[in-house]
UniProtKB/TrEMBL annotation:
This is Mannose-6-phosphate isomerase-like protein (Cupin superfamily). InterPro entries: AraC-bd, Cupin_2, GPI/OXD, RmlC-like_jellyroll, RmlC_Cupin_sf. Residues 71-134 form the Cupin type-2 domain. It comes from the Bacteria. One of its GO terms (biological process) is regulation of DNA-templated transcription. It comes from Pseudoroseicyclus aestuarii.
Length: 323
């Protein structure tokens, strides 16, 4: 399999060319959440807005996205039916969870990664001093069919002009929009339904769902550090695997994969070569490697170099399955 440089350019999303959506979700007008930017990099994602730009609209078996937020900006409590994995590209972030966001929390630094358990309400907040960015991997091509919001999020949004229809689309009264005829508002979860969302303490989440960057860097000195997978540090099978690669653990020879693979730059610059050309990846860049394409990786300069590699697996995307 070969690919021209022009064809490959269409599979690379540069960090500096990411196109944000500021009205992606129901809390876009809610004070405290109204400055966030959402990015859909690969796949349709879970955005509720028709304004969301999709950079690479090709099914991979998982979705890649990102969230950018200034200090003290937070993402409201929600849940997913498939995996939601984040790593911190820039800044310092607090992740919290539970019905009211008080069941547990953990602070992540740059490079740290969290595989949030499915079936719990979760949110996150930039607690750093500058604009921060977290990169996300969502399980499944349709990411579980969308977002499940805690009831108070829907109520707060309605007070600030945004209504989520039962069709999963947002309607903004500040723009003169209203629910179409025959479409009702998204119903709030009942008390009986809310009992299905467990309140997990930090000790129930952090040990098996959080991996620290410098621990992974130490593990990846001679071979890729397996971060998420059946035999990985965070044992889960969400429909994809995640590894951390460093200059000491890269496969220097040409190789290929039989499923979609995505490279996500963390630190340093990387030289990516394939049958047809060569390019350089910088921190925050995302590259989609098609199945069967022979390629190689090498650091492009001295210094710290790391990237996360996400590979599709045959496991079905669904609730967290650890084991």
């Amino acid at each position: 399999m070969s690919m021209t440089p022009t064809e490959m350019a269409g599979r690379i999303v540069r960090y500096g060319e990411l196109q944000p959506c500021r009205t992606a979700f129901i809390d876009a007008h809610t004070p405290g959440s109204d400055q966030k930017e959402n990015f859909t990099i690969i796949g349709g994602g879970v955005s509720e807005s028709a304004d969301q730009h999709v950079h690479i609209n090709e099914a991979h078996g998982f979705n890649i996205g990102a969230a950018g937020q200034p200090p003290k900006c937070r993402n409201s409590l929600h849940s997913h039916r498939t995996a939601e994995v984040f790593f911190v590209l820039k800044g310092r972030w607090r992740f919290f969870w539970g019905r009211w966001g008080t069941a547990g929390e953990v602070v992540l630094e740059e490079g740290d990664i969290i595989n949030i358990p499915t079936g719990i309400f979760r949110g996150f907040e930039n607690i750093g001093t500058d604009y921060g960015m977290i990169m996300a991997v969502l399980g499944g091509d349709d990411a579980g069919g969308g977002v499940i919001w805690a009831p108070q999020v829907i109520e707060d949004a309605r007070d600030h002009g945004l209504v989520l229809g039962e069709n999963g689309k947002l309607y903004d009264s500040k723009k003169g929009q209203s629910l179409p005829e025959g479409v009702g508002p998204m119903p709030l979860l009942t008390e009986a339904e809310l009992t299905q969302f467990p309140e997990l303490a930090a000790l129930d989440v952090v040990p098996g769902h959080v991996a620290r960057y410098w621990d992974l860097m130490a593990l990846a000195q001679k071979e890729p550090a397996k971060v998420i997978g059946a035999e990985a540090r965070l044992k889960d099978r969400p429909g994809f695997e995640v590894e951390l690669l460093t200059r000491g653990s890269i496969p220097g020879e040409m190789h290929s994969h039989d499923r979609h693979t995505v490279l996500m730059g963390m630190r340093g610059h990387w030289r990516f070569a394939w049958d047809g050309g060569e390019t350089t990846l910088a921190p925050g860049d995302t590259l989609s490697v098609p199945p069967g394409l022979a390629h190689s990786l090498a650091p492009a300069m001295t210094g710290e170099a790391s990237l996360y590699r996400v590979k599709a697996t045959e496991d079905p995307a669904g609730p967290t399955w650890r084991g």
